[in-house]
Specification:
Keywords: Membrane, Transmembrane, Transmembrane helix
Distance between the termini: 69 Å
Oligomer: single chain
Radius of gyration: 22 Å
Transmembrane segments: 12-33
Order of helices and strands: HH
Shape: elongated
Length: 52
């Protein structure tokens, strides 16, 4: 059985690597996916009294 210090060190390093890849992936994918995130219809056009 592993000591708690070894467990935290091992899984802490694994978590750091996973978070690093997720962070870099978000930076790379952000500009590519931005057109999909920004809808053509604004919130003012969706509201009941908006832009008549």
């Amino acid at each position: 059985m592993m000591a708690p210090g070894d467990w935290f060190a091992r899984y802490g390093c694994i978590a750091l690597v996973v978070v690093s890849f997720a962070f870099i992936g978000a930076i790379v994918a952000g500009p590519l996916l931005r057109p999909l995130w920004s809808p053509r219809v604004t919130i003012a056009q969706l509201s009941p009294g908006g832009s008549r």
